Amino acid sequence: MIAVIQRVSQATLHIDGALQASIQQGFMVLLGIHVNDTPEDVAYLAGKIAGLRVFSDEEGKMNLDLQAINGELLLVSQFTLYAATRKGNRPSFLESARPEQAIPLYELLINTLSEKLGKKIQTGVFGADMQINLTNDGPVTIIIDSKNP
């Protein structure tokens, strides 16, 4: 699994012009699920995301995690993170998990993060055409790959 984590001051997600999700300070996470991913990848990634200390403490140092700031999280599945672009100009998505494999792992990550953070997280809709607006705070963007711990 690959997670692209952006520290945001706000983020919104719309589907067909309707507001689906909205958060204030926290993380906007784009999630790529690989054909070889398992629940162990979910557990690893959930622990890393929940414990990631990139919010400023009273001295201005990146030292606080999402819970310490009472931050919010918006999680969006994005199969294009596993695009293969070596040959030609049209990406191949053969490394991205098919919905029958990806959806249960996506839902497991939603539940695991909600438990770790002690609150419901916001999500997109798997497979939907979504429009996301966000303000990247910093900017801070971190990429975590469960296959490269």
Automatic annotation (TrEMBL):
It holds the Pfam family Tyr_Deacylase. GO terms for molecular function: D-aminoacyl-tRNA deacylase activity. A Gly-cisPro motif from one monomer fits into the active site of the other monomer to allow specific chiral rejection of L-amino acids. Its EC number is 3.1.1.96, 3.1.1.-. It catalyses: glycyl-tRNA(Ala) + H2O = tRNA(Ala) + glycine + H(+); a D-aminoacyl-tRNA + H2O = a tRNA + a D-alpha-amino acid + H(+). This is D-aminoacyl-tRNA deacylase. The lineage of its organism: Bacteria, Pseudomonadati, Bacteroidota, Cytophagia, Cytophagales. It is found in: Cytoplasm. Keywords: Cytoplasm, Hydrolase, RNA-binding, tRNA-binding. An aminoacyl-tRNA editing enzyme that deacylates mischarged D-aminoacyl-tRNAs. Also deacylates mischarged glycyl-tRNA(Ala), protecting cells against glycine mischarging by AlaRS. Acts via tRNA-based rather than protein-based catalysis; rejects L-amino acids rather than detecting D-amino acids in the active site. By recycling D-aminoacyl-tRNA to D-amino acids and free tRNA molecules, this enzyme counteracts the toxicity associated with the formation of D-aminoacyl-tRNA entities in vivo and helps enforce protein L-homochirality. Belongs to the DTD family. A motif (Gly-cisPro motif, important for rejection of L-amino acids) lies at residues 138-139. Its main location: cytoplasm. The gene is dtd. It comes from the Bacteria. InterPro entries: Daa-tRNA_deacyls_DTD, DTD-like_sf. Homodimer.
